[in-house]
Specification:
11 helices; 7-stranded parallel sheet; 16% strand; globular; Rossmann fold
């Protein structure tokens, strides 16, 4: 792929900042739109240009008009599933209407392609088959999952009616350096931070619930490969195909940080998905992507990062 001008929304965030790093290493010019509500300017590559703006803002049009990006990688989102349940109107305003603001500008300014961060766990809901392929029934049980699926439908519309090319990447549970360890953040970041700080780490329920944990640098690489994807396939699962229970995750982190840490269980969270794991054969076949980082190596890198900022 020739050197291009690429706009990354949410580029100061956890996943977005890793994508920006890869794009810049590949020689591309990178523009970042991020309102820094969950992103952090310290995450951002110094060679990227940051516009502090919400994706719902009408001022987005000026950035498209003046900067003339050729491609868009759309990572900006309201990412908290529980917050989406508490305030579905806000979730929809960011994740659906904010995305439509981007897509309307993509049409107006002849963007060559959009890569969209979708969700493999949230749009499939409680799985019927394991691992779930891209043809698994859609049965989202959160406004967040509904919004991600809705955007995929909009992308199909924009491709069919306006010839806007796109790829949707359905992420598994992404973890790694720069993830926010506070609030309703990813369990890896939460557990790591608490263990390093000597705080009691609590496992919700019996800890037998499973997730497909995929390392953030592998996810960033999938986004870069998706820019080059010229197949008719538009949606790809991005995960490992391996189920790891929360109890197993706790033990792996405890062994890295401090084997003497005590295990404590709390009440199960209402509505929490029991099992989630993705079949990523299509990404391997069409994108030539596989997850290269084992969970052991990924957790070691993650702990190392959190130790360095602690």
């Amino acid at each position: 792929m020739k050197k291009s001008n690429i706009l990354v929304t949410g580029g100061a965030g956890f996943i977005g900042s890793h994508i920006v790093d890869l794009l810049i290493d590949d020689g591309h010019e990178v523009i970042v739109v991020d309102n820094l509500s969950s992103g952090n300017e310290n995450n951002l590559n110094k060679r990227a240009r940051l516009f502090k703006l919400d994706i719902q803002d009408a001022g987005l049009e000026q950035i498209f008009r003046e900067e003339r990006p050729e491609y868009v990688i759309h990572q900006a989102a309201q990412i908290d599933v529980r917050h989406s349940v508490a305030d579905p109107i806000y979730d929809a305003s960011v994740n659906i209407l904010g995305t439509l603001n981007i897509l309307q500008n993509c049409i107006a300014y002849n963007i060559k392609k959009v890569v969209f961060a979708s969700s493999g766990g949230a749009i499939y809901g409680e799985q019927q088959s394991f691992p779930a392929s891209e043809s698994h029934p859609f049965q989202p049980i959160s406004p967040y999952g509904i919004a991600k699926l809705t955007v995929e439908h909009y992308l199909f519309y924009y491709m069919t009616v306006h010839e806007l090319n796109y790829t949707a990447l359905r992420y598994a549970n992404v973890y790694g350096p720069r993830q926010d360890p506070f609030g309703e953040a990813g369990v890896v970041a939460v557990f790591t931070k608490k263990m390093l700080d000597g705080e009691q780490t609590v496992i919700n329920g019996d800890g037998e619930q499973t997730r497909d944990f995929v390392y953030v640098e592998d996810v960033a690489r999938a986004n870069v490969l998706a820019l080059r994807n010229n197949t008719h396939e538009k949606a790809f699962n991005i995960g490992t195909g391996i189920e790891t229970s929360i109890k197993q995750l706790f033990d792996l982190l405890r062994n890295i940080i401090d084997p003497s840490i005590k295990k404590e269980h709390g009440p199960r969270k209402a509505g929490e998905q029991l099992r989630s794991v993705l079949d990523c054969a299509k990404a391997k076949d069409k994108l030539h992507w596989t997850c290269e980082t084992s969970i052991e190596n990924g957790l070691n890198k993650t702990v190392e990062y959190f130790r360095s900022i602690n």
